[in-house]
């Protein structure tokens, strides 16, 4: 399949594939262990599942990579990182003990909870892209992905003494 895409779309498919493979492998593999490096894990997951995936798909289909092909991946990136983020709260102590310095460990639960809300606020990029004419107004439908009725339970769960409800809320968020 990969060779077929290289022949039909161009050699850029190899670059996208190698970038994705690099991020996936070194997320946990030494010597980089991106997941343990103060935010690089969240960044790499966000890039791989968001802009890299959307731009790679556009390239494979059209042979080109216009800026909007990266930008449309931002909401996907945010949702993916939100899943990762909320699920790191219950693991904070274990992650810290094993040297996995993700942003929850680095920032602490008090500050990290605001990061969750900032990631949700990042959906404002969709509005900006529509208002500047880079995307059609129908793109605003992606705002329905914001888990409005579950924001407060997930936010509160991040501060629960045992944090177990946060997992339940994050699953609800991502299914709504």
What does this structure look like?
There is one protein chain. The protein has one domain. Helix content is 69%, strand content 0%. It contains eleven helices and no strands. Helix 10 (148-157) runs antiparallel to helix 11. The protein is flat and about 50 Å long. It starts with a helix and ends with a helix. Residues 170-176 have low confidence and may be disordered.
Give the gist of this structure:
The protein has 176 residues and is an all-alpha fold.
Chain-wise SSE layout:
Elements: H1 2-9, H2 12-26, H3 40-49, H4 51-62, H5 67-71, H6 73-88, H7 92-97, H8 103-121, H9 124-131, H10 148-157, H11 164-175
Helix pairs in contact: 1-4, 2-4, 3-4, 3-6, 4-6, 6-8, 6-11, 10-11
* Strand percentage: under 5%
Distance between the termini: 33 Å
Give the C-alpha Rg.
18 Å
N-to-C SSE string, H for helix and E for strand: HHHHHHHHHHH
Largest beta-sheet characterization = none
Helix content: 55-70%
Relevant terms:
176 residues, mainly alpha, 11 helices, 69% helix, flat, disordered C terminus
């Amino acid at each position: 399949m990969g060779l077929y895409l290289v022949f039909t779309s161009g050699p850029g498919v190899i670059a996208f594939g190698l970038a994705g493979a690099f991020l996936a492998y070194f997320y946990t593999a030494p010597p980089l262990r991106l997941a343990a490096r103060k935010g690089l894990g969240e960044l790499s997951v966000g890039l791989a599942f968001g802009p890299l995936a959307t731009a790679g798909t556009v390239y494979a289909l059209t042979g080109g990579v216009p800026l909007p092909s990266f930008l449309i991946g931002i909401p996907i990136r945010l949702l993916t990182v939100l899943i990762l983020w909320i699920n790191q709260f219950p693991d904070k102590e274990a992650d810290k003990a094993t040297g996995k310095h993700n942003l929850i460990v680095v920032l602490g639960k008090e500050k990290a909870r605001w990061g969750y809300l900032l990631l949700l606020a990042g959906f404002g990029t969709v509005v900006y892209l529509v208002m500047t004419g880079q995307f059609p107004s129908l793109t605003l439908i992606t705002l329905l992905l914001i888990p409005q009725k579950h924001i407060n339970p997930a936010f509160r769960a991040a501060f629960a003494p045992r944090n177990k409800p946060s997992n339940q809320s994050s699953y609800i968020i991502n299914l709504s």
